[in-house]
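Q: Focus on the chain.
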Amino acid sequence: MGEAGTRTPAEQARAVARACRTATLATAMADGSGPYASLVLVAFDHDATPLLLISRLAEHTRNLEADPRVSLLCDGTAGFDEPLTGPRVTLQGHALRSAEPQDRARFLARHPSAGMYAGFADFAFYRITVERAHIVAGFGRIHWIKDYLLDAAPALREAEADILAHMNGEHTDAVQLYATRLLGRSGDGWRLSGIDPEGADLIRGNDVARLGFDRIVTDAEAARAELVRLVKRARSTAT
């Protein structure tokens, strides 16, 4: 955690990935003709496992049903004058169908509009079991990572719904300050859509933002302390 310069490659990779709303999914064509890349919506579980909602009618789904090996590119270069100086992460692993309610809930919290078709018979949720990651954090800062995933924090997962309900119901002013003062976002109506050991996800319509924590949190009390500390920082920041 902490500033980007002090993070491990795995921490940097997770930070880049978790901030992404979309990613590029690469699969092997079922007919053997070569690789195929496509744009997908993505969310991330507490341990930073990527979550997808894809249709069996899509080429990439037919491909991974024949060969579950996938590669997912998370692009963090937006806003850089020279894109190749910005960070990007490639996650390699296998895409496996998931019927876990928590995967569905977490994905739809980040992509509410996907609820319109999530129940269609041809759509299903998938988890990508990440086997290794590759981060390019800028010129000369390139790493292969085998320990990409974060350790589980079951107490925080259990408390997540209550934390979100409390923050979005009782502390909308704090959430708004996170977005505007700490993350430089505009507009009213920001809310928290998720929390995990490394940060919180904010959403406003189709816009998303990532609020990173300075330390790992593993339960409700630690999360409360970090959220309080961050709102104090936001209030002390000049408008």
Notes: The chain has a mean pLDDT of 95.
